[in-house]
């Protein structure tokens, strides 16, 4: 609630917190009401949806791979989604629904590559090697995206602005477009939560409890693709949110994935809204790219995890 109120009060524009505060109580000037209700409020809702989606996706990936470094932005899932959207923009796609579907398809492809990598000998048991493989895939996808930007100058500016990550100016039509897929993803999360907790004890134990590990993996991959694709369609490829939030939630709740998922619900939006507010006020009257702030927050956490004594699988 604190970060949500801060997101409504502070911004890079001329409307200060003192001007915006009366709007929350039904007062204030016309300009302040317009900025708060028409600009900052949709941005707040977008931040909540994006933060929640990336946090849950990161927690699911980490539980499935039993790897504390598994994160959509680090392992090529967000990169695959971003590349697919860049292709769609180049081809002239303008519909919010089309962008969302393309983004989720790219995320599904990226997530499938991640799972293939974790099933390869040596990678599943070595978190650092898995991150290196993901970084290679991400770098390749970013390079291909840069090639697309060179191919069409008209689309290059839109791709360049979008790929840096931002929740500013996202129309409500985009939020309505991702809502159905988020509902489906939520249902899948509810279905896989308990089986994932059993799977953390080992495949044989999970099978003994009546679960099917192969089916669990497929459902988790689909859920992650829906969540990351929706978040990328809304805000672009944001890294480290899916790493930091599950790390904080797991530190507070313990290894039980069900408790971790519950804590991700408030922590994910709070972290993203905090990052977005900082992006607005640090360089006011300009704004920093949101992806830069999330990287500045997440990079130290990544180093802490790598250097900690709990680096092996979860």
TrEMBL record:
Q: Which domain of life is it from?
A: Bacteria
Q: Which InterPro entries match?
A: ABC_BtuC-like, ABC_transptr_permease_BtuC
Topology class, membrane:
Multi-pass membrane protein
Protein's UniProt keywords contain Transmembrane: yes
Q: Which regions span the lipid bilayer?
A: 41-61, 73-93, 130-151, 177-198, 218-249, 261-282, 288-306
The compartments listed are: Cell membrane
What keywords is this UniProt entry annotated with? Cell membrane, Membrane, Transmembrane, Transmembrane helix, Transport
The Swiss-Prot or TrEMBL record describes its family as follows: Belongs to the binding-protein-dependent transport system permease family. FecCD subfamily.
| Name of this chain's protein | Iron ABC transporter permease
Q: Which organism is it from?
A: Marinobacter zhanjiangensis
